[in-house]
Amino acid sequence: MKMGRGRTSRIRRRKLFRSSVSRGVNESYKPEFIELKKWLKDRKFEDTNLIPACFPGTGRGLMSKTSLQEGQVIISLPESCLLTTDTVIRSYLGAYIAKWRPPPSPLLALCTFLVSEKHAGDQSVWKPYLQILPKAYTCPVCLEPEVVKLFPQPLRAKAEEQRARVREFFSSSRGFFCSLQPLFSEAVGSIFSYRALLWAWCTVNTRAVYVKHRRRRDFSAEPDTCALAPYLDLLNHSPRVQVEAAFNEETRCYEIRTASSCRKHEEVFICYGPHDNQRLLLEYGFVSIHNPHACVYVSEDILVKYLPSTDKQMNKKISILKDHDFIENLTFGWDGPSWRLLTALKLLCLEAEEFTCWKKVLLGEIISDTNEKTSLDIAQKICHYFIEETNAVLQKVSHMKDEEVASINQLTLVETLWTEELKILQASALILNSLQTPFRDTVQPPRQGVEAF
User: Are 198 and 276 in contact (CB under 8 A)?
Assistant: First the structure.
């Protein structure tokens, strides 16, 4: 039989190719998912809408078994399946938590339970869930220091804060871990190691859903809002979908309702929130391609990099921006420089005789064509600086990938972040170019009596 050569056949082949590329590979037959499904069934949960699958680009996720309609509840996980502080307090850890002073935080309780249950192995009631959790994470706190140094400066600073926070969390928890020694035959120091606690911290930080619990005297005053949701937490993030997710007090289930339709055998997504890529990498360890919320941050030192050092009012201008919360969250996005960034630059570019108009600038008023043009010029210079810096980092990452084979996955993650930021900056450069068009010098007509050449 000859393959069709007509237009209809070509269209059909393209559709089949696209479908095969995007369609996931069913993983429900794997032993770990068979065991998880039985475990969930024992806890009164059976899913008829979704099945676990592996997808190109996103990895393991959930695939629709049937077409899903807008407004449909796609998953309803009973409270009995959730791992919360109630789970912990009812366990063998409850008595130790109750007598520890000062009371441990809800986060410490969850992390301690995860480490303890993972150590229990086959003896753990939670084994079917624990064995499908990631063995390692790609949050910045887990990455090699030389990889973190490649981050954009704002993200690098937050990553270092995150690492310090987790280190302090581990250090301050060691006394509590020691109190648990009667529960174990092995030394608790070998069970509750930094590496083990880091894994547990990342599990809670990247996978927990929001479920508010009543205040317990056994825990510190920190918010108790985290719950681990087996199976449900296989759903991957997409910034382009909308869902309603919450714990239903009437059904006592955590429910996710989709605000958009989904075709059969497509990956089903949820949205973790309108986060930019730096936030996604910091909190969840991944970067979203073509993320509409992605942006490039402009720090204070870069903001003033191309302004005249002779401006005697510069310190006062910076002080005004700080006082009115205009010194942070200044960005370039897919639609160009943000209003906040341009407003900050307009204030910084005010001439001495215009300085009294700074309040009008913050209200969005136009002061002069000269001020508008100068601020756009500076924005374009900053944008071009970032483009050069981004290309330089991408080149460095490329060389490191050839030399640091062991870190290639981490370097690829960083490369993806910078590549997305480069696309944003290139889009912003084009928009800035169009915004400057009205201010470009026009060709002056020749003076009377002078021949034009």
Answer: no
Q: pLDDT tens across 93-135, in order?
A: 999 999 999 999 999 999 999 999 999 999 999 999 999 999 9
Strands 269-270 and 50-55: unpaired
* Rounded CA separation 265/24 (Å): 7
Q: At CA 419, angle to CA 414 and CA 424, rounded to 5?
A: 130
User: Average pLDDT of the chain?
Assistant: 91
Q: Which residue pairs, CB below 8 angstroms and at least 24 apart, start in 109-112? A: 109/85, 109/219, 110/83, 110/84, 110/85, 110/200, 110/204, 110/208, 110/226, 110/228, 111/173, 111/197, 111/200, 111/201, 111/204, 112/88, 112/173, 112/176, 112/177, 112/180, 112/192, 112/200
Q: What is the pLDDT of residues 380-422, one digit of tens each?
A: 999 999 999 999 999 999 999 999 888 999 999 999 999 999 9
Q: How confident is the model at residue 441 (pLDDT cuts 50, 70, 90)?
A: low
DSSP 358-418: HHHHHTT----HHHHHHHHHHHHHHHHHHHHHHHHHHHHHHHHHHH-GGGHHHHHHHHHHH
192 CB contacts (<8 Å, ≥6 apart)? 112, 115, 173, 174, 177, 180
Helix (H) or strand (E) holding 277: helix 277-284
- Using the predicted structure, report yes or no on whether residue 13 has a pLDDT greater than 70: no
Residue 25: its H or E element: strand 25-26
Residues contacting residue 313 through CB under 8 Å, at least 6 positions apart? 350, 352, 355
28 φ/ψ angles, rounded to the nearest 5 degrees: -65, -15
Neighbours of 182 (CB within 10 A): 7
By C-alpha distance, which of 254, 252, 230, 231 is closest to 117? 230
Give the per-residue pLDDT at 9.
54
Backbone angles phi, psi at 413, to 5 degrees: -60, -45
Question: What is the tens place of the pLDDT at every residue in 321-370?
Answer: 999 999 999 999 999 999 999 999 999 999 999 999 999 999 999 999 99
DSSP letter, residue 297: E
Give yes or no for a contact between 188 and 215, defined as CB atoms under 8 angstroms apart.
no
CA atoms 158, 163, 169, 172: torsion sign? negative
